[in-house]
Design goal:
six-stranded antiparallel β-barrel, rod-shaped
Length: 287
Amino acid sequence: MSPIGRVFIVLNLVLAGVFVGFGGTYLQKQHDFKSQLLAEQKSRADEVGRLQGDIVRLESERNSFENAKTARETELDAVRNRMAQVEDENKRLHQQNASFEGDIKSLRSLAEAANTQMKAAFEQSSSAYQMAIADQKTKDQAVRAKDDALAENRTLKNTIVELQETITGKDLQIAGLSKDLSEKGLLLAVAKEKGFIEGMAAPSLAGMVTNANGRLLTIQVTDNPGDVDIGDMIAKMPFSFAIYDASGYKGEATATRYEPSAKAVLCNVTLVKGAIKEGDRASTRTP
């Protein structure tokens, strides 16, 4: 039994003795004290019973509380142990984190150094690549220049060969022409000895006087059956036109220049036997 229960029991016994003493004392004086005592005793007994029940209940609750306290203390110890383990783990993780931070710093330094080296290597590579491209361009330009020079040299050689062949042909042609000219010169000399006049070798042309001004006149060629080069003939051997109309022969006009666009021959009048005017006929053959 707990001390509190014992105290209540002793207290009840004391009170009961007191009441018994008071009852014995006053029993002689008044009869109703006995009934009061009995009632009081009964009340005290009921109170003691109630208190005993409360004591039992309180002891049970105290036991429950002590058991709960023991359980909670056990749980608290477990929690404290767990906290200690967590703190140890936290310390270990802090130390590991510090180590990782040191490693990360070291790796970062290595990465920065590697990045610097990579940049330097990339710049060197880019520079080398640019130099290689420049060298390749220079090489390509040199090769193209060489190819162009070789092609130009071949072209020049071919041109020289062609020119040499042309010169050879021209030389042969000139030699032939010289021979022909020499032969024609001999024939012309023989013909002149026999009465030939150079004017008789004029091309067969006919036309009409379109402008007459003193000793200058213009003849528009209307008939060129041989389709001769009039300008070339004038340059090589000037010839004359006979000027005439319905009344007859009026004079001679020597050709000096030819205008192909107008088919006009400019002439100087060399012999006049009448008045030459626009509309007169002209011919290199005597009408």
